Amino acid sequence: MTKFTHSRSVPKSMQALYETITGLTDAFCREHLNDEYLELARDMAAALCRKRPSPVVSGQPRTWACGIVYALGQTNFLSDRSFKPFMTMADVCAGFGVGQSTASAKAQTISRALKISPLNPEWSLPSLIERNPLVWMAEVNGYLVDLREMPREVQEIAFEKGMIPYIPADRD
Predict the structure, then answer these.
(1) What tens digit of pLDDT does each residue of 89-99 get?
(2) Are the C-beta atoms of residues 59 and 65 closer than 8 Å to each other?
(3) Which of 3, 18, 30, 170 could form a disulfide with 10 if both were Cys (CB 3.0 to 4.6 A apart)?
């Protein structure tokens, strides 16, 4: 539904490591989170495997798997009880058998490598896109505007350029 799509292509030399990492994230997400986290974790693992040099070549796959879920959890408010699913970062770490300081360091490395910031639309769960204010903000004539409040013609242009995931009136 959104235009924020990711490639899952991975260099052949990284394929086995990608499969190991995503095997861990898939199992964790199926047991504790949801399919949205599972899909984004796969996308993030692929993006990390494509980096040159790839950070995932050093360290244990389970620490990278944990770091991926940790980074996604930070971006998507996983440890905020008002969001579903909910899970503390300590529980995420325990689920992977990784220390919290190690997981936090991996998540920070991932965030730097992929230029992830809080509320990053590219790494938001599809179910949270509508609630993410950064998805809908754009600068128009030097002013920051909410594209949901702009005329349909402006929304159509923004949609065609991939700036917004959908035209709000079409969702209703």
Answers:
(1) 999 999 999 99
(2) no
(3) 18
